[in-house]
Amino acid sequence: QVQLVESGGGLVQPGGSLRLSCAASGIIFSINTMAWYRQSPGKRRELVAAITNTGTTNYADAVKGRFTISRDNAKNTVYLQMNSLKPEDTAVYYCHAPILTTGGITGAWGQGTQVTVSS
Fold first, then answer.
1. How far is 38 from 69, CA to CA, in rounded Å?
2. What whole-number distance in Å separates Cα of residue 85 and Cα of residue 118?
3. End-to-end alpha-carbon separation of the chain, Å?
4. Which of 78, 80, 103, 115 could in theory staple to 34 by disulfide, Cβ–Cβ 3.0 to 4.6 A?
5. What is the C-alpha to C-alpha distance for residues 97 and 112, in angstroms, rounded to an integer?
6. What's the pLDDT tens digit per position in 3-39?
């Protein structure tokens, strides 16, 4: 069994910064792309940023230039550095990764961490 555990959410003022972390645990043979999604009340879950195991990244237009995704392959951990936060960034943030484990590939999701941007 594998799981993803997120941390780092919270309340921040507009213009502030937060850093989210997501660590994978369990029997892990490999992880290719790791990604962050977010979901606001009444909206669909949307992709925020993704990173492959070789470091190729892509971002949603809404966060380009403000957010940076990175990962530590040795620790099976992905990070999301969020700068210049705006109220519209308020959402529950989830990490996701297809993890090769015993029995095949498991599409794992974290439990979510709340990010609130408000003055």
1. 14
2. 9
3. 41
4. 78
5. 13
6. 999 999 999 999 999 999 999 999 999 999 999 999 9
